[in-house]
């Protein structure tokens, strides 16, 4: 096989966190085989960097290539579902005469900046509902004056919650 240029591929590895301080998350890769993988967690706008380690194949010695991508925009959160998979990955392609060597490393992305916006919408909706309920209690108490004290107590309880 080496005569055709199809020699051994060698081994390529991505080192993303040499200090071991980045959070990792276990991700299920395949439902049938229960394969799992540890992926490093990144956030939107965070730098992505590390080293590529290429063990000897055609090379005569180990080779290490440092890389750094500053302020990488990652607008979506990683997701693995039944029908859809949204992933971020690093890909290295070594172009050879007959066959190319491709190595990929997935990373997990979390979006923490979107959560408060959703909570604010819910709180605004709750406030509007409480205001409508309070107005309804006031209107009802005016229509039924004999129960006015009871309605005022209910209204007071609603506004305290």
Automatic annotation (TrEMBL):
GO terms for biological process: intracellular protein transport. PANTHER family: VACUOLAR PROTEIN SORTING 26 RELATED (PTHR12233). InterPro entries: Arrestin-like_C (IPR014752), Vps26-related (IPR028934). Pfam families: Vps26. Gene3D superfamilies: 2.60.40.640. Belongs to the VPS26 family. Residues 115-150 form a coiled coil. Keywords: Coiled coil. This is Uncharacterized protein.
């Amino acid at each position: 096989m080496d005569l055709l240029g199809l020699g051994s591929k060698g081994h390529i590895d991505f080192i993303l966190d040499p200090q071991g301080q980045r959070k990792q998350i276990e991700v299920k890769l395949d439902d049938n085989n229960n394969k799992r993988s540890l992926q490093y967690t990144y956030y939107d706008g965070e730098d992505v960097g590390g080293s590529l380690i290429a063990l000897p194949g055609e090379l005569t010695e180990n080779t290490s290539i440092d890389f750094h991508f500053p302020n990488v925009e990652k607008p979506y959160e990683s997701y693995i579902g039944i029908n859809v998979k949204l992933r971020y990955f690093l890909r290295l392609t070594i172009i050879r005469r007959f066959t190319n060597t491709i190595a990929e490393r997935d990373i997990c992305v979390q979006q923490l900046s979107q959560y408060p916006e959703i909570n604010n919408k819910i709180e605004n909706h709750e406030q509007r509902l409480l205001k409508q309920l309070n107005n309804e209690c006031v209107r009802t108490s005016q229509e039924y004056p004999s129960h006015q004290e009871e309605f005022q107590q209910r209204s007071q309880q609603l506004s305290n919650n």
